[in-house]
Amino acid sequence: MSRNSxxxxxxxxxxxxxxxxxxxxxxxVWLIRDGEISVVTGCAPLERExxxxxxxxxIAQKYKPSREKDRPAAQILVTDVxxxxxxxxxxxxxxxxxxxxxxxxLGEWWQxxxxxxxxxxxxxxYVEWRCQQPWKSARxxxxxxxxxxVTAAGAxxxxxxxxxxxxxxxxxxxxxxxxxxxxxxxxxxKDRWLTRDEAARLIWTCWRMREMRTIPRGPxxxxxxxxxxxxxxxxxxxxxxxxYSGSRAGAICGAAxxxxxxxxxxxxxxxxxxxxxxxxxxxxxxxPPARLPSRLLAHIRRWAEDRGDDTxxxxxxxEYRGKAISVDVNKAFALAVRxxxxxxxxxxxVLRHTAATWMMQNGADLWDAAGYLGMSVQVLESTxxxxxxxxxxxxxxxxxxxxxx
Length: 405
Prior knowledge:
alpha+beta; DNA polymerase, domain 1; hpI Integrase, Chain A; 3 domains; 3-stranded antiparallel β-sheet; 15 helices
């Protein structure tokens, strides 16, 4: 009896060595395996993200899910719903490659299941299964440290994408039933923010850090010494913009110095940061234009005027070696945080927390601060309101005041 196919998936083909000499003949590489079909991706073991993109493209080209209207949930595969989400919705998001990677991860668990199988029990089993796996970006063989495991919060974020895919499928009229995706409880909000001293230490660490080079010859051959190239100056600029604009990492990394299709930009003449990508519709992550502080605007204008051979900003506000940096700055940022002597709880999003906290500590108007940060007044007040000097002031005055006769 033949076994059921596991479907298209990634497989890491091991390296091949010559039996006699032991020399490397073929390097290890990711393959796409689909039954008897094998497709070479050309991606090395550390390039799993690129291999996953090729897998997503392969699946999209090979398989077209049924778009028959008004079907019962028991006849609709979850993987079909996810595939439609990749085709219809993912290209319109800010980071389509990340959505595709999440959908592929979901498909690994829900393979062969129908929408009728999406219950509270199976959702909880998914969370339990994911929390036993390391993040795919973990490299314990390279770092020598235990891999970082997926958390319940990470699994919740993936299930939110599953819920969005199912809702899109139902709204298009393909399913006659309403399916609920049961999510784990939200993690408590993080209250980590940087003091002025911590922020200054982090910026100076990034600005002064030099790349190390190895002396190739002479009596000091093999010794590592600081070079003339600075390693993290682009991160120093990223941190400054994050602290003084309160913008998300994606908006900062994609900001251009002039109007560009598909990018946000900074109007250097008027001093306004248009965070939403030009030509893109507004999303749930509200990104209203923000008027930049004069101190930050002076920095950015100086960066834009610098046109030497070693300039950092040519077309975008934040660049690394002549190119706009990736949206995902977590790895380099984590190294800089460690070098500055700060804890692993300091992430790029902490810069946004810090901006909101500093606003509240200095008594900013709630309405103005919420509009500047791109969040509702309710979220600002509930998360950061306790930092405001007037927080609960009327209650304090009332409880200490003498009762009138």
